[in-house]
Write a structure and sequence with these properties.
Elements (H helix, E strand, L loop, with lengths): L4 H4 L5 E5 L8 H15 L4 E5 L5 H8 L7 E6 L1 H12 L4 H4 L4 E5 L5 H9 L7 H14 L2 E11 L4 E4 L2 E5 H8 L10 H11 L4 E9 L11 H4 L35 H11 L6 H5 L26 E2 L4 E8 L3 E3 L2 E2 L11 E7 L4 H11 L12 E13 L6 E3 L2 E3 L4 E13 L2
Parallel strand pairs: 1-2, 1-3, 3-4
Antiparallel strand pairs: 5-6, 5-17, 7-10, 7-15, 8-9, 8-10, 8-14, 10-13, 11-12, 13-14, 14-17, 15-16
Helix pairs in contact: 2-7, 3-4, 6-7, 8-9, 9-13
This protein binds adenosine-5'-diphosphate and magnesium ion.
Magnesium ion (MG) binds next to helix 4.
């Protein structure tokens, strides 16, 4: 209707949070050496914020005027994004706040989301600076897609939101113990794995989960509501964002489905569950976060697991790993079928009795996503929507997105497409 959009739309603004101590402590140099020029050339205005301490980013986004920003971008490892997501979910206006597009630029030693996003773009594997360039390029393109989050309850009633993983046993131990090798970069996980193999131990606990019932995914009557007309294009970060670097910046043609509303999706999952408990009960479980989305699939840690859940018979584990992105680290393609918004928790566990060489083989095969083809009788893989883990061993570690959390029973459930992610 005659409006000249380039004149009425303000330029896109991006806040880039850099953790100067992540990885080898070179995030700032990596930014100025590889990303800065790219953003300038693509005319993407940004503000650089250097974090000063742990939880600085969380506090900052909790209070930020989000109307000022078209995207929050993290230049660090996965730990800093975990802070940002939880800062957004701390807010009174979480429902709107969590819609702020989130971007990742690999600057840490654990860059699982960056590796995953790069993988989703169907590009051949890349590491280090090449991975950084790929993620910088995606930021310049500015396409945005939905991102699943997982809500996690700890015994202390604390509630966390996670975008990557929940780990117990071997993987959690490697995550935390290998932090002292952070200066070597991503190879810290291989070093940690070798060290942990030497002191391999068994962890006792109980595991239960709500399996995904394969098709039909949604109740038929709701088909219209949950499959809105496919958007012609994946929404972009900012409509005025110039795409000079890639004139034909178009959405991933092979994207398995289009979302136009994260919330319609989330509601449909809750409604379709036979195990849904009352909203009231779920709200009581909000973990001090008033209004945050209820976990309708969870019963509460003080209750028996709901009907329809599978209780794992074994109680002796080497590891339990719930992952909701494809990669656990730059060179660990852990959940080959995963995508950012498939609505699944990919649950892996390894039962006791596996030999050291067999466990090492699994991790080496994971580089090519071939661990499930190893035929190990100790490795189990399930797609689930919710799970509960109750450690019995008095000592151990649990990590969420690679960060250590309180050790004890945990429950978790997926919230499909709750957040939004800058992707290829
Ligand atoms: P890495 O992949 O190297 O572990 P992360 O992004 O995971 O990098 O960051 C590691 C930890 O550092 C996280 O727990 C994060 O909260 C914390 N952190 C963020 N900024 C700072 C800072 N300025 N100083 C110290 N720690 C920080
Ligand atoms: Mg980390």
């Amino acid at each position: 209707d005659g409006v000249v959009y380039s004149e009425v739309r303000r330029p896109c603004r991006v806040m880039i949070l850099v953790n100067p101590h992540s990885g080898r402590g070179q995030a700032l140099q990596l930014f100025s050496g590889h990303v800065q020029g790219m953003l300038t050339e693509a005319a993407v205005p940004y503000k650089l914020v250097i974090t000063e301490h742990q939880n600085h980013a969380r506090e900052l986004v909790r209070k930020a005027d989000l109307s000022q920003w078209d995207a929050l971008v993290i230049m660090s490892g996965d730990g800093l994004l975990f802070e940002v997501i939880n800062g957004l979910m701390d807010r009174e206006d979480w429902e709107q706040a969590i819609q702020t597009p989130l971007g990742i630029l690999p600057g840490g030693s654990g860059n699982a989301l960056a590796a995953s996003v790069h993988h989703y773009s169907q590009s051949p594997p890349a590491w280090n600076e090449e991975l950084l360039l790929s993620c910088g390029f995606m930021l310049c393109k500015g396409l945005v897609g939905p991102l699943d989050l997982v809500s996690i309850h700890l015994a202390s009633q604390q509630r966390l939101f996670s975008f990557l993983s929940l780990a117990w046993g071997f993987v959690a131990d490697v995550d935390i113990e290998s932090e002292k090798y952070r200066h070597v970069g991503a190879i810290r996980f291989l070093m940690g794995t070798l060290v942990r193999l030497a002191t391999l131990r068994v962890y006792q606990g109980r595991l239960a989960y709500l399996p995904v019932k394969e098709a039909p995914r949604y109740p038929k009557g709701n088909a219209k509501a949950v499959h809105p007309p496919a958007a012609p294009q994946r929404p972009s970060l900012c409509s005025s964002l110039p795409c000079q670097l890639l004139p034909n910046a178009s959405p991933n043609q092979n994207s398995h489905r289009n979302h136009t509303s994260a919330n319609s999706n989330h509601n449909s999952i809750a409604n379709s569950s036979n195990n849904a408990i009352t909203t009231k009960r779920a709200e009581a479980q909000s973990g001090g976060r008033s209004g945050a989305p209820p976990d309708s699939l969870l019963a509460g840690l003080d209750q028996p697991v709901p009907e329809g859940w599978t209780v794992v018979r074994e109680e002796d584990f080497v590891l339990v790993l719930a992952i909701y992105q494809s990669h656990l680290a730059e060179d660990l393609w852990t959940a080959p079928g995963a995508s950012a918004d498939d609505g699944f928790i990919h649950l892996f566990y390894v039962t006791a009795g596996i030999s050291r060489p067999a466990l090492l083989r699994l991790f080496l095969a994971m580089e090519k996503g071939a661990h499930l083809a190893c035929g190990s009788p100790h490795l189990v893989y399930e797609k689930v929507r919710a799970l509960r883990l109750e450690p019995i061993s008095p000592q151990g570690m649990i990590t969420v997105d690679g960060e250590m959390v309180e050790y004890g029973p945990v429950e978790a459930q997926i919230h499909p497409g709750l957040a939004r992610l800058v992707c290829g």
